[in-house]
Amino acid sequence: MPTDTFVPAGFTAPTRLVTSRFILEPLGPQHNEADLAAWGSSIEHIRSTPGYPDGNWPPSEGMTPERNLADLTRHVADFVAGKGFTFTVLSPVDGDVIGCVYLYPSPSEEFDVEVQSWVRASHADLDTPLADALVDWIAGEWPWRRLERRGR
């Protein structure tokens, strides 16, 4: 689906998913420090997660807080423009960042959306439940029907 028609005109993107095991909210600059710590502590785990097959993300050398902030700011701009939707995954216990979800146009015309997610290595048990919850959430609240789940 072309980027300029990723969501229908007038569509209001959901901004929260709450389960007993995690909470999703739009990723933003306020998550910079915790986001950097989350993925920085789990590089090899994330690289082995289905959906990250090229081995280039996250960068093995890490990122400066400024570079990570620029990345988060780009995701916010995409969200506002309806070009892509990135969510931080928070612990319902302490609100710490434990992962991330990306909903972006699929590069393949066979799919409407490419769905990717990762969790910290310390929360690896949530990887499959998160990926499965996204399928239900997208079916119930988003306009897409053909999901590219990248190996899930």
Key traits:
about 150 residues; Aminopeptidase; alpha+beta
Q: Topology, pairings included?
A:
Elements: E1 17-18, E2 23-26, H1 32-40, H2 43-47, H3 65-81, E3 85-90, E4 97-104, E5 113-119, H4 127-141, E6 147-148
Parallel strand pairs: 5-6
Antiparallel strand pairs: 1-2, 2-3, 3-4, 4-5
Explain this structure to me?
- The protein is of the alpha+beta class.
- It has one domain: Aminopeptidase, CATH 3.40.630.
- The protein contains 4 helices and 6 strands.
- The chain has helices at 32-40, 43-47, 65-81, 127-141, and strands at 17-18, 23-26, 85-90, 97-104, 113-119, 147-148.
- A 6-stranded mixed sheet has the order 1-2-3-4-5-6, with helices on both faces.
- β4 and β5 (113-119) form a beta hairpin.
- The longest helix has 17 residues, at 65-81.
- It is globular and about 35 Å long.
- This is N-acetyltransferase.
- InterPro entries: Acyl_CoA_acyltransferase (IPR016181).
- It comes from Tessaracoccus bendigoensis DSM 12906.
CATH architecture: 3-Layer(aba) Sandwich
Query: Which fold name fills CATH's third level, the topology?
Result: Aminopeptidase
Number of helical regions: 4
Overall pLDDT: 92
Strands, total number = 6
**Classification by helices and strands:** alpha+beta
Largest sheet: 6 strands, mixed
- The fourth-level CATH homologous superfamily is Gcn5-related N-acetyltransferase (GNAT)
Give start-end ranges of low-pLDDT stretches: none
Secondary-structure element string: EEHHHEEEHE
What is the domain tally? 1
Q: What characteristic shape results from the CA principal axes?
A: globular
Strands ordered across the widest β-sheet: 1-2-3-4-5-6
Radius of gyration equals: 15 Å
CATH class: Alpha Beta
Strand content: 15-25%
Question: CA-to-CA gap between the ends?
Answer: 20 Å
**Share in helix:** 25-40%
